Structure formats: structure tokens, C-alpha cells
Amino acid sequence: MPTILVVGGDDVERRRFSDVFGGNGFLTIQVDGPEAADAVMGQQAVDLVVLDERSFGARAYSFCRSSAVSGRAPVILLSGTSDTISQIVALEVGADEVIAADVDCRLLLARARAMLRRSRVQGPAPRPRGEGRWSLDPQTHIATGPDGGQVELARHQARLMQFFLDRPGTVVTTTLIANEDAAFRMEPTAFRTAISRLRRRLAQIDGAEFVRIVRGSGYVHLAAPLRGAAAN
């Protein structure tokens, strides 16, 4: 039975989410803050964390970051803002998904189930994956470039990079990636920002671009990038 840790400062909200998960076959644990969540996760296995960031601000982001670095359970962050940049920052510091805090409980349940399915599919200690001269270690989130340079990515960036690595030479649209991974269901402007940040991060490894823009269509990963080609 998967264990879901519900973290929030409001007793009513914690009970609301816990009742939904508990009524659908999950074991739930309620705590009132990130520090209490850390204590629980140090004592027992947790499969998923649902964290309401409205009461905690920077403490919620710090929890997401430490969870991502240590490889602990994935985190669904319930956000009190619809600001695109804030949501991107949350994903980049370590949240696996950002959802509005007033989400319908049925949708939250569906997202939780999808995330748990992805976690089971990934399995333990996967080997570095990649096509051509780029590769990514899915556990450490360390990307290796064409010339052997390495850089550590945020968990959200690693998921985005892996999506392209699995589809070399295929034009990827925002619709395709949103259908495959709920974390990337975002406005086109926000998605372009996420792509741009990933490209800049990988440019620290090597000048050969990882993703090219296909005007009017989407993005394509070049497994063997052309040297000297100007970025679109």
C-alpha cells in the first residue's frame, strides 16, 4: 500500500486531502510542516509527498530541493499562486509537479496515481541513458555532453532532457510532451522559458546545442549536433 505524506499548515486542508487518499487505498500520514516531514521520512519509507506551500514559502522550496538532491520521494507542490515564473522556479528547485492549491481532489488523486506509476516504472539504480553523444544519469541528474563535460541539472530539467533523449530526431510539440508528462502542462510561454533554461544549462557543458527550435512546429534533439551551427 503506497504511503502518501500530506504536509500543510491547515488542519482542515490536511484532513481533506488525507480523506481522499485514504478512501482510495493509500496509507496517509499528516504533518504540519517541512521539518516534521523530514523527521517522518528519516524514520520510514514514503512514496509521495503532497506539500501545501502556502504556509511555508521558502521553507517549502528548501524541502523540495533537499528531497531532489537526496533522491527521496517525489513531491507534488500545492501552490497558492498562478504566477508562471514562481511555478517554474518550484519545478527547477526540486518539485516534481506544481498544482493549484484549490485543485479538485479528484484531479489531485489522478496526478498522484500517475506520479506513483512513473516512480515504479523508473525502478532502482537506472543506468545512464542517452542517444548519440549526450547522456543523462537519471539518479544523480548529471548530464554529460559531447566532449565529456558534466553538469548537474534540477530534477525538472533532467526529466525534460530525458524526454528529448528518448526521441532523437523527432519534432516534439508542447502538446505531445504535456500529454506524456503532466508536469509539463503549462502555458506555451512557460514551456518556452523551461526549454530556454535547459538549453542555457547544457550550454555550460558544450557549445553543441542539445535542442533546436523548429519554427512553427516545436523542438528537436540532435543526437549528433552540428558544430558551428547558429542557434535558432
From TrEMBL:
<dbReference type="InterPro" id="IPR039420">
    <property type="entry name" value="WalR-like"/>
</dbReference>
<dbReference type="InterPro" id="IPR036388">
    <property type="entry name" value="WH-like_DNA-bd_sf"/>
</dbReference>
<keyword id="KW-0805">Transcription regulation</keyword>
<dbReference type="InterPro" id="IPR016032">
    <property type="entry name" value="Sig_transdc_resp-reg_C-effctor"/>
</dbReference>
<keyword id="KW-0238">DNA-binding</keyword>
<keyword id="KW-0597">Phosphoprotein</keyword>
<feature type="domain" description="Response regulatory">
    <location>
        <begin position="3"/>
        <end position="116"/>
    </location>
</feature>
<protein>
    <submittedName>
        <fullName>Response regulator transcription factor</fullName>
    </submittedName>
</protein>
<dbReference type="Pfam" id="PF00486">
    <property type="entry name" value="Trans_reg_C"/>
</dbReference>
<feature type="modified residue" description="4-aspartylphosphate">
    <location>
        <position position="52"/>
    </location>
</feature>
<dbReference type="InterPro" id="IPR011006">
    <property type="entry name" value="CheY-like_superfamily"/>
</dbReference>
<dbReference type="InterPro" id="IPR001789">
    <property type="entry name" value="Sig_transdc_resp-reg_receiver"/>
</dbReference>
<feature type="domain" description="OmpR/PhoB-type">
    <location>
        <begin position="125"/>
        <end position="223"/>
    </location>
</feature>
<dbReference type="InterPro" id="IPR001867">
    <property type="entry name" value="OmpR/PhoB-type_DNA-bd"/>
</dbReference>
<feature type="DNA-binding region" description="OmpR/PhoB-type">
    <location>
        <begin position="125"/>
        <end position="223"/>
    </location>
</feature>
<keyword id="KW-0902">Two-component regulatory system</keyword>
<keyword id="KW-0804">Transcription</keyword>
